[in-house]
Amino acid sequence: MRSTVQLSLITSTVFALVTTLPFGVTHAMADPTPDSWNAPLPDQFTTLKTGSTGIEVHNAKKRLKDLGFPPGNLSPTYDSALRMTVWAFQKANGLKPVDRIDSPTWQALLHPRRVRPLVADGEPERTEIDLRRQLLTTWKGGKPVLVTHISTGARRPYCEKGHCGFAATPLGDYRAGARVPGWSTGILGAMFYPVYFNGGIAIHGSTLVPRYPASHGCVRIPLHNALDVYRFLQPGIPVYVRRSEAPAERRPKARGEQRSRIPKARSPEAPRRSHRQSSRPGRSTDDHGRRHR
Fold it and tell me: Which stretches make up the L,D-TPase catalytic domain (predicted)?
């Protein structure tokens, strides 16, 4: 019994030390170095999910942030921001997005995939939107600096509040245009720090960013990433919308997941509420009622 407790404490301490190393985004996006990430995955990693608290939650958030997947705050609580950040990380690593950090996700955190561009010859400063994986990546100096989960056009007809159209986020090459700071409310809903890039279609923060395409055409992103994306997307920055090819899914065989003894902690998070906009074939209407061809 004593040896089991000691092993659990040692592995938790080792992981805490490793995940708090000063990885920068540039280093984190490259393949892991043999010296730092070749240690075998401990069996004591706890499966984390919404409501989980403890040092392992904090360490997971810190690791995700270092890898370019901002989780919001670094509190030791598994909140909604972390849940969507985990989705983004799982999708970027060929895993099915699930509402937990399980053994395959821990392994991916130890040995992450390199983030590869959708547009090989894209400009060094750009934003890429992947409609298949529902991911947005910002690139700065030719390197990925932020990856976030998104929800794009639902690809279905709609009629809401007297406005009808087809909910789609069109493929193509665009540039950031008009920007609106803070919250703005229009005919089809509210947007947080929207940046328009294709007529009335914008990238904007939302409280409703499900795992599937659900918008009227805009690119919804989690609230905790909205301001950073807004600051990056200055007028004229390229926005590439693509649909990536589907590679083979990476999901390693799960190990036995035993619960480790970890400190408990709490951190409150206050959710907010919102919704989004539309586009018509040949004409779109933004959330301020303006029409664009």
Answer: 125-242
- The answer to whether residue 159 is catalytic is no
Rounded to whole angstroms, how far apart are CA atoms 135 and 155? Answer: 17
Catalytic residue among 149, 204, 224, 275: 204
pLDDT digits (tens, 9 = 90+) for 146-176: 999 999 999 999 898 788 999 999 999 999 9
Residue of 58, 216, 218, 275 with catalytic role = 218
Residues 256 and 170: beta-carbon distance below 8 Å: no
d(CA 52, CA 57): 7
What digits encode the pLDDT tens for the residues 30-45?
333 333 344 444 556 7
Give 226's pLDDT tier (boundaries 50, 70, 90). very high
- What is the DSSP track for 63-104? HHHHTT---S---SB--HHHHHHHHHHHHHTTPPP-SEE-HH
Q: Which pair of tokens denotes residue 104?
A: 């395959």
Q: Would you identify the CATH topology of the domain 2-29+47-110?
A: Muramoyl-pentapeptide Carboxypeptidase; domain 1 (1.10.101)
**Check whether domain 126-245+273-292 has CATH 2.40.440.10, yes or no:** yes
288 is catalytic: no
For residue 219, CA distances in Å to 128, 152, 196, 261 come to 11, 5, 10, 41
Length of the chain: 293
Q: What is the pLDDT of residue 186?
A: 75
Structural domain boundaries in the chain: 2-29+47-110, 126-245+273-292
